[in-house]
Amino acid sequence: MWMGGHTRGMVLTALVAGAAQCYAHGVAGIDPPAAARATANDSRSMDIDSPDALRALEVRVRALAVKVRPAVVGLVFTDDKGVELGSGSGTIISADGWVLTAGHVAQQPGRKASVLLADGTALTGVTVGAHFGPDGDVGLVKVSTGGRVLPVVPMGTSASLATGDPIVAFGHPLGPERSPWRPPPLRFGRVIGRDGWRLAIDAPLSPGDSGGPVFNLDGALVGVNSEASERPDLNMAATVESANARMDTMR
Are domains 5-69+154-240 and 71-152 of this chain identical in fold? Predict the structure, then answer.
């Protein structure tokens, strides 16, 4: 449900406060890194020790959302007859129409996609590459821009993130909601561990968020939503480094 600005502010404050107190445990379907289990209650990097600090963090997160949300897209895949096959999320990483998503969302080259921009505008696209398995989960979609210059976000690095550092995740939970249109919602959380190419985060994710971006608080892309668990407070994201390592082969 879309809410007015004042209500959204109160809800965001509540979400930020709640994320600082989340607890993560092992869940079916995900084998969380030991570091995630051991440090789920460690909020030292949050540094939220007063109402003023919380309000300052809220202002920063709201400004980040305005900056990066235009580059977050919804993906709806169809067959040759227009029958919907599935959906997910992605991030525009180049103004000429390259969209980064999860490999299990893209699945294989040649899949037709409707690419829904943050304002609800629909463009056409096609998957060009995908890798998903025990060593990665990244994919690429090429959008037909029609000469339109698309908004992009900068690629960051997950290596600079420490356990407890705040992150922000976007996506389209349960798929893009088109009637009425719902812009991709923001979820706030922390890094709670690392396992090779995966980051464990406690930002709540749902099916449909897969392929969406994870940002640091500077607005740089650091991960791709990869796996939503049965618990909302323990999910996985592929690192941006794992995406960069396969970018040339996917194209």
Answer: yes
Domain 71-152 CATH superfamily? Trypsin-like serine proteases (2.40.10.10)
Whether 42 is a known active-site residue: answer no
Query: Quick check: is 137 catalytic?
Result: yes
Q: Which of 87, 89, 104, 242 is catalytic?
A: 104
Give me 178's structure tokens.
Answer: 């088109």
What CATH code would you report for 5-69+154-240? Answer: 2.40.10.10
Q: Cα–Cα distance between 121 and 27 in angstroms, integer?
A: 37
Instruction: Verify whether residue 96 is a known catalytic residue.
Output: no
Which of 210, 226, 229, 242 does the annotation list as catalytic?
A: 210
DSSP-derived secondary structure letter, 27: B
- Residues forming a β-bridge with 235: 201
Task: Out of 87, 137, 202, 229, pick the active-site residue.
Answer: 137
Q: Rounded CA gap, 48 and 164, in Å? A: 12
Question: What are the C-alpha distances in Å from 195 to residues 33, 103, 113, 127, 236?
Answer: 6, 18, 31, 27, 10
For each of the chain's 251 residues, which pLDDT tens digit applies?
233 333 334 334 444 444 433 322 222 334 555 444 444 444 444 566 789 988 999 999 999 999 999 999 999 999 988 899 999 999 999 999 999 999 999 999 999 999 999 999 999 999 999 999 999 999 999 999 999 999 999 999 999 999 999 999 999 998 898 778 889 999 999 999 998 999 999 999 999 999 999 999 999 999 999 998 888 789 999 999 999 999 999 98
